[in-house]
Amino acid sequence: MKGLTVFRSWEFMLAVVLVLELLVLGLINPAFLNIENLLFSTSDFAHVIIAAIGLTLIIMTGGIDISGVSIMGLASIVLGLAFIAGIPIGFAVVIALGVGIAAGALNGAVVANTDVNPLIVTLATLFLYAGVATGLPTLLDILGFQAYGAGGFEAYQYEGITGLPKTFTWIGSGRIGWVPMPLVIALLLAAAATWLMLFTRFGRYLKLIGVSPAVAHFTGVPIKRTLVAVYAMNGFAVAVGGLVLTAYLGSARSDLGSEALLSIITAVVLGGSSIYGGQGSVLGTLLAGFVLGFMRQGLLALGISSDVVPVLIGVLLVGSVALRIGLARLSTARANRAAFAAERMAVEGNGGMP
After folding, report:
1. Cβ-contact 106, 124 below 8 angstroms
2. DSSP letter string over 293-308?
3. Do 205 and 226 form a contact (C-beta atoms < 8 A)?
């Protein structure tokens, strides 16, 4: 029975869809099935998977965070500005990740201590963090800071900061064997998040809060601390995604990753996480990220305009939500029919009316 359950799981369905997708694209363009090319192409969308993993943890609580794409840009530009200010690249990375954690924790603190819907909170911080990222060079000039070996920071406000050292860009362009570093980082984060959700008390807290905050409260779950922590973890994840993308492109920009929001949300929902909370799968998110990423790569390779791809992703998002709702209703209907049949058999066995 456990084997049958695995084959009926949403993750298994996604794995089948992924294989079929690759086979179809490979039939159209045989070069697409080259393993080395497939692995290399994951560098184009690894940041989406990384950010989606962090969002999966938040979705488990019944919340949402749409400010992640702004935190990506904020972490990227903080890294670049710190580097041109003369700070060693290792410390610049630490500062950028710290900014991401702080931004996520601020989201969590507001969500945990107010009755404002998380969507509204993070919509506000989406614009807040994007504005901070854009205006940070000017602010540094006003405060009197100087770029290393140059004048003011304002020259970098709308232009990417290049010249990043190879010790940093290696995480975006390097490989371990055939496996590119962005994919390695995504897989490591996925493994860590899976362990957190399945084998720790914190993971159980996330599910309890998503199922029922009231029950979680009465069972002693520290709801506020847990929410602040999970939003901070998401801030860390999206900051990592922003730095990986920065290293891959070789340029730090304040608007980096701004187009990834729809893909991130789609990966989480398509991966099987319930928008109502209490249910989520990091493995599902990972597989959905591959489905979306390879679909985008395949469509672009076939000459389909990049303007069409977001439309198809939007259709896929709507379709996945509709399918999940349909499957849930079908499961409920089957359970009701089974309960009715069992009740009827019990009545008949006691000599009652059929």
Report:
1. no
2. HHHHHHHHHTT--TTT
3. yes
The CATH number given to 14-304 is 1.10.3470
**Rounded to an integer, what distance in angstroms lies between the CA atom of residue 138 and that of residue 163?**
21
Query: What is the DSSP code (8-state) at residue 160?
Result: -
Radius of gyration of the chain (CA): 23
Return the residue matching tokens 């499961």. Answer: 331
Q: Which two tokens mark 276?
A: 């109502």
Angle at 116 between CA 113 and CA 242, to 5 degrees: 85
Provide the angle, in degrees to the nearest 10, between the axes of the packed helices 10-28 and 282-301: 20
**Phi/psi of residue 102, nearest 5 degrees:** -65, -40
Q: Which helix (H) or strand (E) holds 180?
A: strand 179-180
pTM of the model: 0.88
Domain segments of the chain as ranges = 14-304, 309-354
Residues whose CB is less than 8 angstroms from the CB of residue 303 and which lie 6 or more positions away in sequence, other chains included: none
Q: Please enumerate in sequence order all residues whose Cβ is within 8 A of that of 32, keeping only pairs 6 or more positions apart, or say none.
A: 22, 25, 26, 38, 298, 301
Cβ(221)–Cβ(201) under 8 Å? no
Walking along the chain (354 residues) 10 residues at a time, the average pLDDT comes out as 60 87 84 83 94 96 95 95 91 97 97 94 96 85 64 65 92 92 96 95 94 90 96 97 95 89 90 84 93 85 73 74 70 68 63 51
Query: What's the angle, vertex CA 42, arms to CA 36 and CA 43, rounded to 5?
Result: 105
Please enumerate in sequence order all residues whose Cβ is within 8 A of that of 291, keeping only pairs 6 or more positions apart, or say none: 14, 17, 18, 21, 270
Residue 134 in tokens: 């854009």
- Rounded to whole angstroms, the Cα distance separating 245 from 248 reads 5
